[in-house]
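A quick aside before the break. I want you to see a complete sequence-to-structure record at least once, exactly as it would be stored in a machine-readable document. Don't worry about memorizing anything.
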Amino acid sequence: MENKISRFKAREQGFLLIFEKLFHPEPIEEIIENASESRELEFDDYAVKLVNNVEKEKDAIDALISAHLKKGWTIKRISKTSLAIMRLALYEMKYEDNIPDSVAINEAVELAKKYSVDESGFINGVLGAISRDE
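That is the input. The structure line, written in tokens, reads:
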């Protein structure tokens, strides 16, 4: 059965799972299954696609983030919330041809406004720099 929700809500579900993965070594499939059971949630197909593909492309995505950080910064210095949001947005920017960079960046900023403390400018700056360079 296909679960249809707004694209923003699907991204939000994907972000929450990507964020959760940062704390758990289990395979992403197990995290999705446990989250579904424990929270009695049905994840949108697009959210599951995002999470699985972010996990597959994580090294390439993290390399892009690292290459666009200010001098002296490393990926380990980024909050887990911001990292999860940027991974999701960069997956869409680099691997989803039907999603304009501006949409992925805007949605990332909206997630940051909802889930992080004043990091939307940082996220916007890094994603914008990547969009201009790539």
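Two observations worth writing down. The helical segments are 7-21, 28-39, 45-67, 80-95, 101-115, 120-133. The domain at 7-133 is CATH 1.10.940.10 (N-utilizing Substance Protein B Homolog; Chain A). We'll return to this after the break.
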